[in-house]
Specification:
Layout (H helix, E strand, L loop, with lengths): L5 H4 L3 H18 L3 E4 L2 H15 L6 E4 H10 L12 E5 L2 H4 L6 H9 L3 E2 L18 H4 L1 H16 L5 E4 L2 H9 L2 E2 L2 E2 L1 E4 H4 L1
Parallel strand pairs: 1-2, 3-4, 3-5, 5-8
Antiparallel strand pairs: 6-7
Helix pairs in contact: 2-3, 4-6
């Protein structure tokens, strides 16, 4: 089991359980049946850590935005217009892919937007971290920026000027150093295509 919530990372399992209990009880009082999140870390917390902390299933449907939007497209409740994006490379967020096994829904949304994805040898479960996982950007900025620049240089070598991801933390991380020497990439979250 990999625990990711900030309370767990800080070593306070009691606070993590208290937060899970508070959130679940509040949502139940409101009659919430589904939770939609853009953040893969929050998805993992809601779909895995909360039920583990409470020792029981939550009784909620937990969606990542890419899953929900793909579901809405398949139900013909959401339609795409053609984009002006010719090619892009997709970055699999660690927590979305490795921890949740969600690799295909973001790619399918990109395909439905008529953007061509450039294949990368570092994708799916082989992806390199964006550089900020595990709060590294906050705790060791110099090391994180070094990792981010190396990752972006590798991506930029694919001949695409657009990087798409499905994690706001990865998007932010890539944007802060996305226009540096030898790297000139625009960064979008897949939700921006939707």
């Amino acid at each position: 089991m990999v625990l990711q919530t900030p309370n767990i990372l800080a070593g306070d399992a009691g606070a993590a359980k208290g937060l899970a209990t508070h959130n679940i009880e509040a949502f139940r009082r409101l009659g919430v049946g589904s939770v939609v999140v853009t953040c893969p870390g929050c998805l993992y917390a809601w779909s895995t850590e909360y039920s583990e902390a409470l020792g029981k299933p939550l009784g909620l449907t937990i969606w990542h935005t890419s899953e929900l939007h793909l579901h809405l497209v398949r139900e013909e409740k959401l339609q795409f217009r053609d984009t002006e994006i010719e090619t892009a490379i997709y970055h699999d967020p660690c927590e979305l892919g490795r921890l949740q096994g969600i690799y295909d829904s973001p790619r399918e949304l990109i395909r439905l937007a008529h953007a061509k994805l450039i294949k990368s040898d570092l994708s799916r479960n082989l992806v390199c971290c964006c550089g900020a996982g595990g709060v590294v950007l906050a705790s060791n900025r110099r090391q994180a920026v070094s990792v981010i620049i190396r990752r972006l240089q590798k991506i930029a070598s694919t001949a695409s000027s657009l990087l798409i991801t499905s994690c706001p933390n990865c998007e932010f991380t890539f944007e802060i150093v996305g226009h540096t020497p030898n790297v000139d990439l625009d960064v979008l979250d897949v939700i921006d295509l939707v």
